[in-house]
Specification:
With 186 residues, the protein is mainly alpha-helical. The chain contains 9 helices and no strands. The chain has one domain: Hypothetical protein af1432 (Orthogonal Bundle), CATH 1.10.3210. The protein is globular. The protein binds fe (ii) ion (2 copies).
């Protein structure tokens, strides 16, 4: 049996990967733990989003991807994580036409913004704009910060992964450990 050496390249890669994963996960949860525990945010589990992905799973996915991009680019990663988590807090069934007045594409960022303002006393103007502009360029509000652009990009990336049914494949292959852990955090 081959002994594992601390100088083995794959062993060192695995250790670095685990440390980086843990540091990123801990930092992410530090930004959003209060929101993840909130009943309002948890209630997104009841609403389906793309295919069989709940609105909650999608929002955590977007939030974590935006957080990682913002951290890598030395942006305000807390605003990206919080805004990403709240960007789809519209809290109704999109198929229920009586739940919103017009087109879902235009209506839901405004509904999410109102719910987020009600939920958070400390919602910043940057976070408000992240929520309102996440559908840009389809929706009316433009992103006013790099973090808003990152959340909008993360939303489109995650939606594509979900619509192509790749989210469950990535989850099964253990490619999304931090996202899966954050989804079951509360
Ligand atoms: Fe959305
Ligand atoms: Fe979204």
């Amino acid at each position: 049996m081959k002994a594992i050496s601390v100088f083995d390249e794959s062993y060192i890669t695995k250790v670095i990967y685990s440390m980086s994963y843990l540091l990123n996960y801990e930092s992410y949860v530090g930004c959003v733990s209060e929101l993840l525990k909130s009943q309002t945010v948890q209630s997104m589990r009841r609403h389906h989003h793309h295919c069989d992905i709940s609105c909650y799973e999608h929002s955590v996915f977007v939030s974590y991807v935006a957080f990682r991009m913002a951290r890598r680019l030395k942006c305000d990663y807390q605003a990206a994580a919080r805004g990403g988590l709240l960007h789809d807090l519209y809290l109704y069934d999109p198929d229920d036409k009586s739940a919103h007045p017009g087109y879902q594409c235009f209506d839901h960022p405004v509904a999410a913004w109102k719910n987020a303002k009600e939920l958070c006393d400390d919602l910043t103007p940057k976070e408000e704009n992240i929520i309102l502009s996440h559908m840009w360029p389809m929706a009316r509000h433009r992103p006013h910060s790099r973090e808003a652009v990152l959340v909008s990009l993360a939303d489109k990336f995650c939606a594509t992964v979900e619509l192509l049914h790749l989210f469950h494949v990535m989850r099964r292959r253990d490619h999304l450990p931090a996202v899966v852990k954050a989804i079951s955090f509360a």
